[in-house]
From TrEMBL:
Record-given protein name: NADH-ubiquinone oxidoreductase chain 4L
GO cellular component labels: mitochondrial inner membrane; NADH dehydrogenase complex
Pfam families given in the database record: Oxidored_q2
Record's keyword terms, sorted: Electron transport, Membrane, Mitochondrion, Mitochondrion inner membrane, NAD, Respiratory chain, Translocase, Transmembrane, Transmembrane helix, Transport, Ubiquinone
Function in brief: Core subunit of the mitochondrial membrane respiratory chain NADH dehydrogenase (Complex I) which catalyzes electron transfer from NADH through the respiratory chain, using ubiquinone as an electron acceptor. Part of the enzyme membrane arm which is embedded in the lipid bilayer and involved in proton translocation.
Family to which the UniProt record says this protein belongs: Belongs to the complex I subunit 4L family.
Record localization: Mitochondrion inner membrane; Mitochondrion membrane
GO biological process terms on file: ATP synthesis coupled electron transport
Protein EC: 7.1.1.2
The species this protein was found in: Takydromus wolteri (mountain grass lizard)
Tagged with keyword Transport: yes
Length: 98
């Protein structure tokens, strides 16, 4: 159990480091955020299966639903910005122009 949690923590940390260091494209940011959400889903599923508490068994399903909503919103933003700006480079975006 400890080795599994160590792997989940390191995968979350790698996704977080990827998010902080590779912010060149919007698609890379979305992939890193999705990796973080899937790691959180696996971590909550592991904790709930080890605790055997039926009251909080709905939490991984809610987290997965929120992850799907986040992914669809991110892809909609990706399509909208690539149509208006032509590229998905983060350096070409300016919040003051919007």
């Amino acid at each position: 159990m400890t080795m599994l949690l160590l792997l989940l923590y390191t995968s979350f940390l790698l996704a977080l480091l990827g998010l902080s260091f590779h912010r060149t494209h919007l698609m890379l940011i979305l992939i890193c955020v999705e990796g973080m959400m899937l790691t959180l889903y696996l971590t909550t599923t592991t904790f709930i299966s080890s605790l055997n508490i039926p009251m909080i068994a709905i939490l991984p399903i809610l987290l997965l639903a929120m992850s799907a909503c986040e992914a669809s919103t991110g892809l909609a933003l990706l399509v909208a910005t690539s149509r208006t700006h032509g590229v998905d480079h983060m350096k070409s975006f300016s919040l003051l122009k919007c």
